[in-house]
Amino acid sequence: MASYRYAQINLETKVCFAVSNLPEMVNGDDMILLENGENPLGWTYDNGTWIEPEPEEPEEVQATNNELLENQYVMMMAIADLYEMNAINE
To answer: How many whole angstroms separate alpha carbon 11 and alpha carbon 83?
Structure first.
């Protein structure tokens, strides 16, 4: 039995949001017949070409890491203060 592999795209954004194996050929503007091995989930379909999405900016991750380090420092200082307060009260 033949199987046909299709990418389903959002017609406004042209981004693939699903890949399906279907038992028969289908005809739809949002259904793109795939070749063997293609997996375009999240990719954009533009005039017969799949365009890989741009990677996310690493600067955002760096900023998050800096925020985590700052929060960790604040927590360590608060724990040290609590330890000192407990030692004084004993």
So the answer is: 61
CA 72, 73, 78, 79 dihedral sign is: positive
pLDDT, residue 55, reads 84
Q: Please tell me whether residue 87 adopts helix, strand or coil conformation.
A: helix
- Cα distance between residue 34 and residue 70, in whole Å: 48
Q: pTM for the complete prediction?
A: 0.59
Concatenating the DSSP letter of every residue in 17-66 gives EEEEEESS----TTEEEPPTT---TTPEEETTEEEPPPPPPHHHHHHHHH
The pair of structure tokens assigned to 29 is: 């503007």
